[in-house]
Design a protein that fits this description.
single chain, 524 residues, mainly beta, nine-stranded antiparallel sheet, eight-stranded antiparallel sheet, 1 helix, 39 strands, 3% helix, globular, disordered N terminus, binds 2-acetamido-2-deoxy-beta-D-glucopyranose
Length: 524
């Protein structure tokens, strides 16, 4: 009797929330999906392509109906088949910081095909296509090497001609063949010094009322808009945003991103702000078109990139970004990504995720089949339940905070000794990816006699202005958690290009054959 009454009252109240209160807040979500390229799909939803470098599958895609509530739906690149390094070889070059970065995604109405294009290190251009953004995606063409489609933007204009803008410093436009699967010609169109800056990247291309536009930026500070009657120029330019206050405390001035039109003709700029240890998070703001044919930026109450603006469209809920996974199978969902390509013979998803060891190593960064999941929010918490009955002698398994400096809590087995360990400071050179430090066990306790199931928890303060640290704990019952190890200081360098993630770690130091089973994972 009582509850329905409250619900009725609530819904009555909700209907009376005035329009002015229907704002969204920046960042639109607190997670690392950098280099957004956003465009409209055939279903009226917006699709957001992002960079994920050496994580596999590559080039994640999110979907939204309102530009504010986003849901991961797939990846454009099923497997990073761009060279041996992507399979994380035991020796030799690894693909840290390679893979996908600032690539582009568009739907082509004329043949009902989604196109992903981009340049991967070192320096090759690729096309992947799909009938649906959710996939399946497949390799479609190699567009050559050398002249890299560095930070590219695909345009399919009103004549169905396909152009791609790209370059750093010198910006070029290439025209593609009718099927989009080869390049017909390419031409320089303008350079950074034409705007009085030393460097320029992050280009996207649009056609608006017949006029060609290029959005790009000087890294760190300024977004420019360029306009021309022809894709080949000449282009004139104006500044859209320069050195604005970020809506995220200690975040960088947003500058790179996408221009988006809503069905009612309003326009928005989705950019992103750099705020490590989390990474690069999307921020949205309205723009207005001026009489001279250039857009101007709409400042927020803070005089910069607003923390809050009116919703662009009626809010439409999507699947929440956080929640509990039980690994029902048969596949992992789009929120999971492997560190480099996985050895697919060494895991299975069927009412639990079984990770068999896939490498014999003492270097976490050379261990294949480390599974990752983004952290969401300012205070992300991850909890896993692990059955380690089938661990082999010498195996190391755990759950941690992963990037170029990592830490985890886990089980190390030596002979018949099973220890719960906190391991810190596994460190890479942030530019070369070379391992500098295998890390060290900072605290260890024996596993309670006969127990083969345990819960691990990682709690982070991922705010750029926060304590920027992580605490790890374990539990025998999933309720009472015991801290292990000192507080781990999260690293805030940008050069790895990606922020911290949760990671499920499982590798051998002696011989393959062991496995662990993860039965639940909660990300909150
Ligand atoms: C449309 O895309 C498909 C898939 O890439 C391609 O095979 C086909 O040639 C394209 N059709 C046209 C008319 O461009
Ligand atoms: C495009 O043209 C339409 C119709 O003339 C006009 O309403 C709209 O403002 C124009 N959009 C831009 C971005 O110039
Ligand atoms: C909504 O956004 C507008 C424009 O940025 C701002 O002036 C207003 O204060 C915001 N309202 C709320 C309730 O945050
Ligand atoms: C197992 O632990 C015992 C007691 O600490 C120790 O004496 C023994 O060396 C350990 N065995 C291995 C293989 O580490
Ligand atoms: C972490 O590793 C780096 C690189 O080897 C080293 O310089 C640093 O001293 C280590 N820090 C700790 C606390 O072990
Ligand atoms: C980690 O623990 C330390 C010491 O108890 C505390 O100051 C810090 O706020 C904690 N951080 C998180 C993210 O829980």
């Amino acid at each position: 009797m009582f509850r329905p009454c409250i619900l009725a009252l609530l819904s009555l109240l909700l209907n009376f929330i005035p329009t002015w209160a229907k704002n969204f807040t920046n960042p639109v979500f607190y997670a690392d999906y950098p280099d957004n390229d956003i465009s409209l799909g055939p279903d009226g939803a917006y699709y957001y392509s992002a960079s994920n470098f050496h994580y596999s599958p590559g080039a994640p895609i999110l979907r939204s109906w309102d530009l504010v509530n986003w849901e991961p739906v797939g990846h454009s690149i099923p497997r990073l088949d761009f060279g041996d390094g992507y399979d994380l070889p035991a020796t030799g070059q690894r693909a840290y910081r390679y893979g996908t970065w600032a690539s582009t995604l568009r739907y082509r109405k004329s043949n009902k095909t989604w196109y992903w294009m981009g340049c991967t290190n070192f320096w090759n251009n690729w096309v992947f296509t799909a009938a649906s953004a959710e996939g399946p995606w497949s390799y479609a063409a190699y567009l050559g090497g050398g002249d890299c489609y560095y930070d590219s933007g695909l345009l399919i204009d009103d004549k169905d001609d396909m152009y791609i803008v790209y370059g750093n410093g010198q910006i070029k436009v290439a025209q593609l063949a009718a099927d989009g699967l080869s390049q017909v010609k390419t031409q320089p169109v303008f350079k950074a010094s034409d705007a009085g800056v030393e460097y320029m990247e992050g280009s996207r291309m649009y056609q608006i009322n017949g006029t060609y536009y290029i959005l790009n930026d000087q890294p760190g500070s300024t977004a420019f808009v360029w306009k021309s009657e022809s894709p080949w120029g000449p282009y004139e330019h104006k500044v859209l945003v320069k050195d604005v206050t970020s809506p995220v405390a200690a975040g960088s001035s947003p500058h790179q991103g996408s221009l988006i039109q809503t069905a009612d003709g309003a326009w928005y700029f989705m950019s992103f702000t750099w705020a490590y240890p989390s990474g690069r998070m999307p921020v949205l703001a309205p723009i207005k078109w001026e009489a001279d044919g250039f857009p101007s930026f709409v400042k927020g109450d803070n005089g910069g990139w607003g923390k809050s603006y009116p919703l662009p469209l009626p809010a439409k809920a999507v699947k929440p970004l956080t929640g509990t996974y039980r690994f029902e199978g048969p596949a992992l969902g789009p929120t999971f990504e492997w560190n480099h390509n996985p050895d697919t013979s060494k895991f299975s998803v069927n009412k639990g995720l079984v990770l068999q060891t896939a490498s014999v190593t003492t270097d976490l960064y050379s261990a294949r089949n480390t599974l990752t999941h983004r952290i969401f929010g300012e205070f992300p918490v991850g909890t896993v339940e692990i059955d380690f009955t089938s661990m082999a002698d010498g195996d190391r398994s755990g759950f941690g905070a992963f990037r170029d400096r990592s830490a985890y809590i886990g089980i190390h087995r030596e002979g018949n000794n099973y220890s719960i360990v906190a391991a810190h400071n596994m460190t890479q050179d942030e530019y070369s990816g070379e391992t500098l430090d295998f890390g060290r066990v900072v605290e260890s306790v024996p596993v309670r006699e006969g127990v083969r199931k345990i819960w691990f928890r990682a709690e982070l303060d991922a705010r750029a202005i926060g304590s920027r640290d992580a605490n790890f704990s374990y539990s025998y019952d999933g309720r009472k958690f015991v801290r292990l190890g000192e507080t781990y200081e999260l690293y805030t360098g940008w050069a790895f290009f990606l922020g911290y993630r949760f990671a499920f770690i499982n590798y051998a130091t002696k011989a393959l054959g062991g496995s662990v089973k993860i039965t639940t994972f909660t990300s909150s």
